[in-house]
Amino acid sequence: MSVENTPVLEVRDVSLGFGGVRALSEVSFEVKRGELFSIIGPNGAGKTSMLNCISGRYKPTSGRVYLDGRDVTGLTPNIRATLGMGRTFQNLALFGHMSVLDNIMVGRHHLLNNNALTGGLYWLSGARKEELSHRRKVEDIIDFLEIAHIRKAVAGTLPYGLRKRVELARAMAVEPKIILLDEPMAGMNLEEKEDMARYIVDLNEEWGMTVVMIEHDMGVVMDISQRVMVLEFGRKIAEGLPAEVMENERVKVAYLGIDDDEPAEAGSAA
Amino acid sequence: MISSSLIPCGQYKTSYAADTTIFLTPASRNWCILGIILAACAPLVLSNYLLALLIQIGYYGIAALGLNILVGSTGQISLGHAAFFGFGAFASAWLNNTFGVPVLLSIPLAGVMTTLLGLLFGIPAGRLKGLYLAIATFASQFILEDFFSRANWFTGGSSGAMANPVSLFGYELNGDKSFFYVVLAWLVVMFIIGTNLLRTRDGRAFVAVRDHYLSAEVMGINLTKYRILSFGISSFYAGIGGALYGHYLGFVSAEGFTILLSIQFLGMIIIGGMGSVMGTLMGTVFMVLLPEATEGAVSAIKHVTGDIPALTSALAYIKEATIGLAIVLFLIFEPDGLVHRWRLIKSYWKLYPFSY
């Protein structure tokens, strides 16, 4: 019961500074289990820095990050992955020389038990059996994301839209409690965006995965997110339902750059 | 994409098990088995000289595969592989001479000892990359060379160590013919293990660390652990190769394991194909046969022109220069190595005569 109530992710007063630059200032938020949560904000607002603090690439200057009630602030990214955190990157970060299948299998790293010794003895050690059983799980993800036709292709040779999908597949293979998506639709055309939005919604609704997403496309964010947080210059300026956030004066100012004393033009363009 | 385009039509996989075989097709598997059988027949027909070359290919090939796992698959660099190769040779001789461990057992034990040494010398790899790591491994080459010439208790110092031949049930497997089978068995086993390693969890982790270490870490891979582990595994292969080398020659001396041999190992994997198991073997064959071919070419020239004393006296240098030249030419014209060329040839004949 209490497990259901604890937020999957809790970020408490996280600040991040690079020398004199304050990338994040005391940002706090919670992501509930099964939620599709979006972080938006203008360029340089600190969205990716926030995600990096959550996934462990950056260590916050102050503040804590809790995953499923457990303090993960000091842990390295690989330990956070084993605790149930998956993520994709803004700029593609696939393993370029591996096949799509192997890329996704890497995501299952912490779920597999075979090692250099048992792996080398493949048939004798049970590594084969284990690999095959995980292959089945991976194929479920491949089916879901409709990338069966490219499963043997080398990841580095794929077009952009497909690579984004493979990256999502790889993050799913981790079987995380929470999945962090950094601009999953950047640089896609309308059709690809619609596909990706459908995958993310299905991921959230059918697979029951908690999703934190950074995205610039307002239409998509407002359509599919359950809650939205807005960052500007490293500060949280709004959080709430998409409709509420849309109506927030500070958000309008941040996005449209209107002065506070000219509210008359605000309504039309948001 | 090349691997998928090479699957002939009519090859349907109906189970995941059938899709994870080492060889893409049963035909290529059978060719490989045939190759091993032919190799096993080699002592019956080949002269001792050619057999010696094959044995050389065997122990160098094993060591080169280790380096390929480290450099080709994990994306690290090592300029000290020859030192680990040498450590394996000394370790096996030492275990056999000092403790009376039978040679067949001392070879794998030497591999384990070299692994531990490799893990130790691999620790800098947890922190260093690229050029800095190259220098650190360069240092390990010289530290070990110095150790070889000073540690009398272990290596016999500057006078070297005797290494006994392999004996089985009290019967000494002396001579090239019987030792060939020992090397062949190790070669096959080590290559199968290497192939299996690279298609399971830790092998994928190695390649992931090479291709994109940031996302590898986010996928739950401990970068430090895998960088060091890769050194350990590479040293295991070097140790086995070195132990075979020692027991084959019967005598181990520190002069055999210089930086030049380290560079030659790198040359083997560059020429064969980085990250490719079969490429390693191709590169080793190339590297072992190249000096022979050079010698043949020189003697052919002499046959035509009469004896040229300068050419004869420079033969050793010419051999080394051709190795350097081969590495440079491969880097320029075929950076993916012989294995890539081989794949291109195969796909050419698969599509022949309609190559579109």
Describe the structure.
- The complex is a heterodimer of chains A (270) and B (356).
- Chain A has helices at residues 2-5, 47-55, 77-84, 100-107, 116-120, 122-125, 127-145, 160-173, 190-205, 218-224, 242-247, 249-256, 266-269; strands at 9-18, 21-31, 36-40, 62-67, 70-71, 85-87, 178-182, 210-214, 227-232, 235-240.
- Chain A is α/β, with parallel strands linked by helices and 270 residues long.
- Chain A has a single domain (2-269), classed as Rossmann fold (3-Layer(aba) Sandwich), CATH 3.40.50.300.
- A 6-stranded mixed β-sheet of chain A has the order 6-7-8-3-9-10, sandwiched between helices. A 4-stranded antiparallel β-sheet of chain A has the order 2-1-4-5, with helices on one face.
- In chain A, helix 4 packs parallel to helix 8 and helix 7 crosses helix 8.
- The model of chain A is unreliable at 264-270 (pLDDT under 50).
- Chain B is built from 16 helices and 4 strands.
- In chain B, helix 3 (48-73) packs across helix 12 and helix 4 (81-99) packs parallel to helix 6.
- The longest helix of chain B is centred in the last third of the chain and has 29 residues, at 277-305.
- Chain B starts with a helix and ends in a 5-residue tail after the last helix.
Features:
heterodimer, A: 270 residues, alpha/beta, Rossmann fold, 6-stranded mixed beta sheet, 4-stranded antiparallel beta sheet, 13 helices, 22% strand, disordered C terminus, B: 356 residues, mainly alpha, two-stranded antiparallel ribbon, two-stranded antiparallel sheet
* CATH homologous superfamily grouping of chain A: P-loop containing nucleotide triphosphate hydrolases
C-alpha geometry of chain B: globular
Strand content of chain B: under 5%
State the order of secondary-structure elements of chain B, H for helix, E for strand. HHHHHHHEEEHHHHEHHHHH
Helical proportion of chain B, percent range: over 70%
> Stretches of chain A where pLDDT falls below 50 for ≥5 residues?
264-270
Helix count of chain B, per DSSP? 16
Instruction: Let me know the number of strands of chain B.
Output: 4
Mean pLDDT of chain B: 90
Report Rg of chain B. 21 Å
Largest interface, by Cβ-Cβ below 8 angstroms: which chains and how many residues each?
Answer: A-B, 47 and 36 residues
How does the helix and strand content of chain B classify structurally? mainly alpha
The first-level CATH class name of chain A? Alpha Beta
The average pLDDT score of chain A comes to 90
